[in-house]
Structure formats: C-alpha cells, structure tokens
Amino acid sequence: MTYLLFKKLKFNKPILTHIVVDTQTKNAKNKNTMDAKEISLNEKEVKPVVDMLNDYLANYHIHYQKLRGCHWNVKGQNFFTLHIKFEELYTNAQLTIDEIAERVLTLGKPPHSRFSDYIKESKIKEVNTIGMADMTMVETIIDDMSKLIELERDLLEATDKAGDDGSNDMVNRFMQFKEKTTWMLRSFLGKK
Ligand SMILES: [Fe+2]
Q1: What angle, rounded to 10 degrees, do the helices at 165-188 and 79-106 form?
Q2: How does DSSP classify residue 112?
Q3: Domains along the chain?
Q4: Distance from the alpha carbon of residue 72 to the mean position of ligand 1, in angstroms
Q5: How far apart are CA 176 and CA 138, in angstroms?
Q6: What's the CA-to-centroid distance between 73 and ligand 1, angstroms?
Q7: pLDDT tens digits, 59-99
Q8: What is the CA(56)–ligand 1 centre distance, in A?
C-alpha cells in the first residue's frame, strides 16, 4: 500500500515525500515493538519477562477452567465446603489472570487471548472433572499450584535480572497466596 507522508528536513521545513510501505512488514514490526523504555525499562532485558508472563497467563487459564470444572462437578459429603472453596479460588484466579494480561500490555506486548494458544503453551494440562473424586480434585489443584509456583520462582529471577520491580512484586503476591492456599488444601486432605 502507498502512503503519502510529510518528512521533516534538517532545516525543519516539511516536504511531501512519497514512500512505499509494505503493510505486512509494518504490522509485523508494530506487533513486536516494545514500549518498555517509556517506563524506564530496557526493552531487550524485559523481553524474556514478557514471554514468560505470557506462558504464565496460559497456565493460569487452564488452571482457572479446571477450578470451574471442580466447582461444577464436585460431589459427596464435602460438596458444600468444596463447591464454595473452588468458587473462591476461581474468582481469585480470574482477577490474577486479568492482572497478568494487563502487565503484559503495560510492558508493551499483547497478551495471549486464544484458548488454542493457552492449550499449546501451558505446562498445566486440562483434565476431565466429571466423575472425579472430591479428594482427587483437591490433589489436582495442589499440583497445579505447585507448577504455578515453579513458574513464579523463575519469573522472580527473570524480573529481578531485568530490574522489573513491578512484575516482581505482582508475581510475588500471587505466589504467596498459593503458598498459603497449598498449606490449607493439604491440611484439608490431612497431609503435613
Ligand atoms: Fe457457581
């Protein structure tokens, strides 16, 4: 596509310049352009953080949907306790997901927003919660949380290296929530 642009010369007089821009290249460039320098972060250093945050987001989405499945499909004598607990946890996960995605945007890149990307990128895998025993559901959620905490520890290291205190603080908060929740879920199962 052809664009007509005004190009300023050294002596500050605008002249009409005729240039041809390949829109595909232009769009691809925009897609990869980071705006991290605007918030005083080094773009090159913060790039791995952004990629890791996008993977983290994918994992969180699969975890979130699993919690919903547990909430809907839990049966048995612990129904009232676990139905409410899973709802509490998926509500927390939903807010967490939004914060992660908006942090990716703050660092200048679009967050993953398609389930196909989440399924492809996520280390946490989907499970079928229909007919799953209530205690197995709790074990499954503890296992997801352990994988998320692992990702968070890697992110803490990467954000520290990039001088990205904002992401570091955010991830640290999410990690502490899951560390405490893991203790409570293990106690529910009667484990140490
Ligand atoms: Fe519900």
Answers
A1: 170
A2: P
A3: 43-188 (1.20.1260.10)
A4: 7
A5: 19
A6: 10
A7: 999 999 999 999 999 999 999 999 999 999 999 999 999 99
A8: 25
| Residue 126, pLDDT score | 97
Tally of CA atoms within 13 A in the half-sphere of 178 that contains its CB: 24
Let me know: does 174 contact 168? Beta carbons within 8 Å. Answer: no
Which residues in 82-92 are b (16+ Cβ under 10 Å) and which e? Answer: bbebbeebbeb
CB 74 within 8 A of CB 86: yes
Gap between the Cα atoms of 148 and 24, Å rounded: 36
CA of 126 relative to ligand 1 center, distance in Å: 20
Residues 6 or more apart whose CB falls under 8 angstroms from that of 115 comprise: 61
86 CA to centre of ligand 1 in angstroms = 9
d(CA 142, CA 48): 27
Compute, in angstroms, the gap from residue 96 CA to the centroid of ligand 1: 19
